[in-house]
User: What shape does this take?
Amino acid sequence: MAKHNAFYAQSGGVTAVINASACGVIEACRRHSDSIGKVYAGHNGIIGALTEDLIDVSQESDESIAALRHTPGGAFGSCRYKLKDIESHRVQYERLIEVFKAHDIRYFFYNGGGDSADTCLKVSQLSEKMGYPLTAIHVPKTVDNDLPITDNSPGFGSVAKYIATSTLEASLDIASMCATSTKVFVLEVMGRHAGWIAAAGGLAGQGEGEPPHLVIFPEVAFDRRKVMERVEYAVKNYGYCVIVVSEGARYEDGTFLADSGNTDAFGHRQLGGVAPTLAGMVKQDLGYKYHWAVADYLQRAARHLASRTDVEQAYAVGERAVELAVAGENSRMPAIKRVSDNPYRWEIESAPLAEVANREKFMPPDYISEDGFSITDACRAYLSPLIQGEDFPPFENGLPKVAHLKLARVEKRLPEFTI
Amino acid sequence: MAKHNAFYAQSGGVTAVINASACGVIEACRRHSDSIGKVYAGHNGIIGALTEDLIDVSQESDESIAALRHTPGGAFGSCRYKLKDIESHRVQYERLIEVFKAHDIRYFFYNGGGDSADTCLKVSQLSEKMGYPLTAIHVPKTVDNDLPITDNSPGFGSVAKYIATSTLEASLDIASMCATSTKVFVLEVMGRHAGWIAAAGGLAGQGEGEPPHLVIFPEVAFDRRKVMERVEYAVKNYGYCVIVVSEGARYEDGTFLADSGNTDAFGHRQLGGVAPTLAGMVKQDLGYKYHWAVADYLQRAARHLASRTDVEQAYAVGERAVELAVAGENSRMPAIKRVSDNPYRWEIESAPLAEVANREKFMPPDYISEDGFSITDACRAYLSPLIQGEDFPPFENGLPKVAHLKLARVEKRLPEFTI
Assistant: This one.
């Protein structure tokens, strides 16, 4: 069997475990050295392919590659760059094929979310039209958990574990001080379009009165009066109130809470997020002392608290991507299939990319309680397995040890290309 | 030897390890059952003593007490309540003695920061005047690391480890996306009066260009032009800029950045913290895409990432407090003494409370670099040992396991007292 090279790239917002997928892809390629030659990684994702800025992964030691499994961020660089539609920007797609040809790349592994699944599909289709034998496999990743078909998206489980743990820990802090200090705590979490991450905050407590007392989802129109009633109820009955709010929280008319028209002294749009906005409402309407936190990148970079389930799945989809490619499958995505909830069992299946691209998965309505402020048992049954298990990284000198790659570049063979 | 009861209370802002000190106190009391009877904990700190709201710790199992070692927050409730001066509020101090008398309490263990050291000293002095034999020992705690004499304050090491780790992890995220996305990331950390926690962020990197590229201390007057020059330099040379900023960052005239007079659309003082304010300046002056995070309570509650050194020291000061009391020492505080930096060795010494109360420890000027934006080698040598070692809590169902106490109350024997 003739050997050809592989291309791997990371796309979109990175996660705590996208490098575990990279590790899965690269280690599997090394195990299939009969059919796969070198792995070239795109520097800064697909931009690396377009500009022929390729990293020669063969120069990285086995130890360095193994260390990717516990290194957050995107080790080869990722990008927010979406290839436009193929009709008007055909030249970009053709450039990709040219670069692949120039470096004998016949395997294309693209690690990203919905947009990159779409790109992966288009590249696959075009290469077929152009008669270039390319095997394109999409490796799923997104903290937003919005990919279809796959039961969950690698990257989400670790954010979920971080947010659930942080909510639990901070709640113990507030609970112990509420008699004379902070009564309301607001934690802002990611999820502009869907409340998956906010829902994970709901895992921190279960029984009556256990925090968080409110989860505010983008799926439920924000009703200030109702929210404040609930906050007051919690403070009066439990002594304090913990709120997990999605950055995507919005009013009935679709306006984001964070964009509520507040301006600073210079007339500039206020920069604060949802948490300070909501905390301000609490102060104004109820007068309670508050604190707020915005986890931002901390939540999606927190590899130190990754879910073991998530790490294993992230690795598995990377590994399986290579196995599918070697087995001759094309235009596919390894997807996680849930076999059972309790005990949680999962396996990887192969999904056609045409069914993945350009479709979003939203929270099922029955995952949110009737009153709109908490998660249901169905949601809990879905989420809980995803945060199971720990996979602490090795530490050195008090800090997590991370991979340090050489990132040696492959010599260019083509003229420059401006994107 | 006649047996008498002990009183233990938590005071001020809680930490990830204040319960480890509680564990040390209680376990040591149980080991000294020849001289110490029951341990009564104040519900919500000293307020519990004033209102005779006492928790009977003898009803908690050894397992529950052991679990305190890995439970964040203040398990018996803490408070922000400072006893006023003894001249004008003598009645409060006398009430404390009355409650102690009524419950045969002759050991007073007070777990807190500078204010509580002062209270502990006053209670000790008054009891002597009143002829009531009370042994008062202060157990040090504060994330602010501002207690004198002790080399460091239990609680600080864990926040330091959390902030250093979070800075490292988030920096990897920014670094991998900066070519096409966020160029500047701002992490706001605690420390209204001193830059100890901000300094800990500096541990994330060491070499030229390693993040954080700027640490903004309360000790250094904020100069917008200089800061922006440095941000621009980092973005141009390293592709991105990570800033760790103390909530106490202030201008030359003492105005806090967070109180810069910004108001929202209703004319209310803007609620945003330092991070959004600084991020706004970056956008306005340099136009870079930014993200910001405010760790707030997450940082001081993050027991899941506690420093093992910190946990051991927190336990040790609690344990030693009891040993000092049993040995007949009074008006003392167990203090951490650094024996050597490398290898790090420490021991506990006994410090007179009179030297602890009402004194603050600030960052030595030689811990901040000449340009005011980073930590020096001396600072690194001081901080580094404090974040060494991990002490992950047990996890259950994907979340940290925490202590669940009965918190049974002791029957009241005195008339009500209004505070």
Summary: The CA atoms of residues 31 and 260 of chain A lie 54 Å apart. Chain A touches chain B through 84 residues (CB under 8 Å). The first helix of chain A runs from residue 18 to 31. Chain A has two domains: 4-142+305-358+390-400, 156-301.
